[in-house]
Write a structure and sequence with these properties.
The protein is α/β, with parallel strands linked by helices. The protein is 36% helix and 22% strand. The protein binds S-adenosylmethionine.
Length: 206
């Protein structure tokens, strides 16, 4: 059996893990949205123990890939993937007791490869699910101050929009504002290789 791989995930996963180790709450369940092949999940889960990693995707084919990777590289703290389309609310993890409780949401390379509505739905989910000081971690390319941060990101944005006009690299300021409206405070913006960012939000309650 040949495992399907994402070259981008191969390249960026160790840099992402370094950030996750630092910013995630020490315990609890990490719900990964849009896990894709599952390569981040199998790589990160054992290194982030005792946290539990819960992969998910909206695509059944992805769930199959995640299961294959999980079989190939098992980890006691890596859960079986669940079907979550951020647009279909409530998410299944909200209607069943989670043990341990979810303390973080992670979405890697998702919000630009989906309509803006999906970013809003992801933020809605974070608002509903995260406890006080729970973390939402986003990774990917962003525009900043209304500009692309590199010619390669601009070209990537054009190629995304040619595939689907509703896709595209998001403005960090727009994401941050939409998050703030949902009691998700921007904590850190961390430059990453290849003109990507790690963006960390924390849920607060007044
Ligand atoms: C570029 S892939 C990234 C996969 C993985 N996170 C990675 O970095 O390798 C984008 C993923 O977003 C998922 N996705 C797109 N729309 C979604 C939605 N509405 N809800 C959940 N996942 C979605 C796709 O199924 C796909 O797996």
């Amino acid at each position: 059996m040949t495992l399907e791989t994402s070259p981008a995930a191969e390249r960026n996963r160790r840099f992402i893990l370094d950030v996750l180790k630092r910013v995630l709450p020490d315990t609890g369940m990490v719900l990964e949205i849009a896990s894709g092949t599952g390569q981040h999940a199998v790589y990160a889960a054992p290194k982030l123990s005792p946290r539990i990693w819960q992969p998910s995707d909206r695509n059944e084919h992805c769930l199959g890939m995640i299961n294959q990777w999980r079989d190939a590289e098992p980890s006691s703290n890596l859960q079986a993937p669940v079907l979550i389309d951020v647009l279909t609310q409530p998410w299944p993890v909200e209607t069943q007791p989670m043990n341990p409780a979810i303390t973080a949401l992670v979405a890697i390379n998702m919000i630009h490869i989906a309509p803006w509505q999906c970013c809003e739905a992801l933020l809605d989910g974070a608002q509903r699910i995260l406890p006080a000081d729970g973390v939402l971690y986003l990774y990917g390319p962003f525009r900043q101050q209304g500009e692309h941060t590199s010619p390669s990101n601009m070209a990537f944005d054009h190629s995304l929009k040619s595939r689907d006009p509703e896709w595209g690299i998001r403005d960090l300021e727009k994401v941050t504002l939409a998050a703030a409206k949902r009691q998700l405070a921007l904590m850190e913006v961390i430059p990453m290789p290849a003109n990507n960012l790690s963006v960390v939000f924390k849920r607060h309650y007044f």
